[in-house]
Design goal:
The protein is α/β, with parallel strands linked by helices. The protein has ten helices and nine strands. α2 runs antiparallel to α8 and α8 runs antiparallel to α9.
Amino acid sequence: MTSKTTHFGFKDVEESAKAGMVHGVFTNVASKYDVMNDAMSLGIHRIWKDAMMDWLAPRDGQRLLDVAGGTGDIAFRFLNRAPNAQVTVLDMTESMLIEGRKRAEATTLADHLDWVVGDAMALPFPDNSFDVYTISFGIRNVTRVQDAINEAHRVLRPGGRFMVLEFSAIPHPGLQWAYDRYSFNIIPPLGQMIANDRDSYQYLVESIRKFPKQDEFSSMIRAGGFEQVSYRNLSLGIAALHSGWKI
Ligand SMILES: C[S@@+](CC[C@H](N)C(=O)[O-])C[C@H]1O[C@@H](n2cnc3c(N)ncnc32)[C@H](O)[C@@H]1O
């Protein structure tokens, strides 16, 4: 029997090996994750995350599941806009969650936050148990993306909202070329300088290129059972927000 392969950045690896490699990357970068995000994007990831909140329009009383929630950026933003929401942050890398729990907001918002170690492809929650599901810069790291989308659909209640923030593609070849030059020439050396870890940031830029473009990813969201699927490009398509509803 031949074993299945998938990609880890530009490398082909056994499907069963990928999660461990991704876990290794985020364990390595956890303590420098927040500072690197600001350095690489010149702070623009904050604007994208705020745009996600603008489109989601959080409301008090909602139960949010933030998958691949890492150090809590989405959870804290959601609770800042809806202080009486209840948020579960799930991530497979415990060191990322530990960094999140060290942040000041984690203490002030503690009554509204749960931190859970788990896998996006097999969520440890019953059917129909959340109003909103978010995943920000997480889904491209998941071994079987379609499984994660299907799981999101399962745990959302009917009427629930699914939203993804992810790196995407610029629909203009010249601009995409310039952005590629920036990514491959600047980001891995910056990772080396700030986090003493070139390889993790080489993986980051490669994984972005392997992720499906806007229209293909929209089709996967529809295949997971979501309706009224749409997307908005951010910064010309460097990133995109994808939205769907469980009807
Ligand atoms: C780039 S970080 C994103 C963190 C945060 N959501 C943000 O926007 O800043 C990606 C996160 O995805 C997590 N991750 C990757 N694969 C996962 C999976 N299968 N299940 C749960 N978390 C996963 C990693 O551990 C990492 O913390």
